[in-house]
Prior knowledge:
Blueprint: H1 10-19, H2 33-42, H3 49-65, H4 70-83, H5 86-104, E1 116-117, H6 122-130, E2 135-142, E3 145-150, E4 159-163, H7 165-176
Helix pairs in contact: 1-5, 2-3, 3-4, 4-5
Amino acid sequence: FMASDTTMTLDEKRHLYYGYIYQDTYSPYGHSNYTDSLKVLMQKRQLSNDELKNVIVFSDSILTKNPFDLRVMNTKLFAYKEFKNDSAFQKTLNKFKIVIDALLSSGDGRKKKTAFYVINVSHEYDLLNILGFSFGGQQTLIDHYDYLTVVENPQKIEGFYFDVSPSLNSLNEMFKK
Length: 177
């Protein structure tokens, strides 16, 4: 993953992504000190080269603790595109695709039985956007499934189910300590 390996099989991608919950560093509710700094930069209309370099530095720091943060990867892609650094852009895009492939292989999200299995709640919203849908404003937790409504769309899909068991289990473990 760290080498942006494009030869990974779907099983390897799934083992990597879903296996991360067994790492000591897995923290679906964690927050990096660099997240706020990155948000401040990204709210600017235009970024200088030094600010773009900081975007990459802050992103790398966040990804060290949370290597599957799709939003941060996306921000890093923006910076590399602005720098016209095609090689770094492609490597980051490959990592992004590894996570997305794992997520999409887990189901179609149309029913609980075929829910998308996510290890981080933010991946629910990321996946909606990647699939071309916008969050409809209502989130419901049903057992260990999040159901997110989506805005009206040509496919007439009302919402998607996400199995959030890993995040809930992590939360339960935090309260046991």
